[in-house]
Amino acid sequence: MSTKGCCKRQNNKLNTYDWLCDIPEAEKATDYVEVQFKNTRKGYYLNSAKLNIAKGNIVAVEASPGHDIGTVTLTGKLVLLQMKKNNVRVNDAEPKKIYRLAKQSDFDKYEEAKARESQTMIRSRQIAADLGLNMKIGDVEYQGDGNKAIFYYIADERVDFRQLIKVLAESFKVRIEMKQIGARQEAGRIGGIGPCGRELCCSKWMTSFVSVSTGSARYQDISMTPQKLAGQCGKLKCCLNYEVDTYVEAHKRLPSREIVLETKDSTHFHFKTDVFKREITYSTDKSFAANLVTIPAERAFDVINMNKKGTKPPALEADVKPQPPKRDAMDILGQDSLTRFDSVKKKKKRKKKPEERKGGEAQPTQSNRPKKGEETANTKNRNDKPRRKEEANGRNDKPRRNDEATSNNNKKANNRNQSKPHGQKPNPAQTSEQPKVNKNKPLVKRENNNEKEKS
Q1: Can you list the pairs that 16-19 forms with residues at least 24 positions away whose Cβ atoms lie under 8 Å?
Q2: Given this model, what pLDDT does residue 321 score?
Q3: CA dihedral 151, 154, 157, 163 (to 10 degrees)
Q4: How many CB atoms lie within 10 A of CB 109?
Q5: What is the pTM for the complete model shown?
Q6: Is residue 166 within 8 Å of residue 174, measured between CB atoms?
Q7: Which of 285, 261, 287, 256 is nearest to 273 (CA)?
Q8: Cα angle at 157 between 151 and 162, to 5 degrees?
Q9: What is the pLDDT of residues 205-229, one digit of tens each?
Q10: Would you state the pLDDT for residue 392?
């Protein structure tokens, strides 16, 4: 027999990888063959005729009554290990045999029987409802030759289905076999997506279902909310058993929950445990949370040893200076902000009110305007105060010079105006007004011009 195709893995959760398929001696170790049928049903048959059978072949095997059609999933020495694992004993009864490799006539009967399964399931559900039975028929499987039908049902209580078997046998003219399955098996047969976002374990790879208890959730400090603990089948999630062994080992290195810690002030009872941080929280009341104190596991062991010696510490916390809390990582660049790509709106400048423009003085209205001949204190103050613009212009336009130079210039300008004949316009440069000074010219040149005029 060729070993090239025996190591090919099937896309089936019930497939068993034959890691001994490359060893020639392992192939001839036994004549037993593992054959798989619909759903999760498997059987072990004897190849008494010494047929050349390989993994993946479709064969006709012995059944009661008639024959059945199945697929070969395992050959060689590994079949004996699987039989031992599944508690299949060879010596107790005569083993069933493999008749032949499936022919075309066997395939035709098999397809004809499979085509009747959906209609049979719908009709059987109606019959069970008419009889008032508290059960649910989940699936129907016909034998390869069509002489027998297996009805898979789900029921929470014990059901007397003797009358149902009689009605089903008269309706479908076949031999009836009833097989009860659990809610987990039904979920595995239907399939679905779990809360983790992946395909259900029962429909993907699980072949045997172990009972799950609420103790697994308690060890892992999971909330005991039924909606969170239940799967799609309505039972406790199978994945609760995956990490429970690790939590059990971790709790062995922590103080027992039943131990009570004594201090000088009060008695402390266990409230909760953080397995990852190895921290334990104690409460002064046994029934509810009161004056919670969280200490590391090492400190709890120290207090327990002190209580065994008959001493009580003043407090559960150790006499250690409190350390400043560690700063968490900060997002300096702001890359984690959800609004980092939003456009930043510019703030519009608020227009100043007329009261704010003029030094906070309110504009007079018709009601508070002074009458003719009347002066208020505000109007007097406004008349007395010089305008700011004129003061600013005066400061900017007046050149910086000595007091003597300015007085001499004013005297000479007056003398020139007196010497001019009547009707002649005075020269703007020779008037009593101060001459316009160019700001860009230096101050030294202006003084030189004044000296020339003197000469």
Answers
A1: 16/73, 16/74, 16/78, 16/82, 18/55, 18/74, 18/75, 18/76, 18/78, 19/78
A2: 55
A3: -20
A4: 20
A5: 0.56
A6: no
A7: 256
A8: 50
A9: 887 788 888 888 888 888 888 888 8
A10: 45
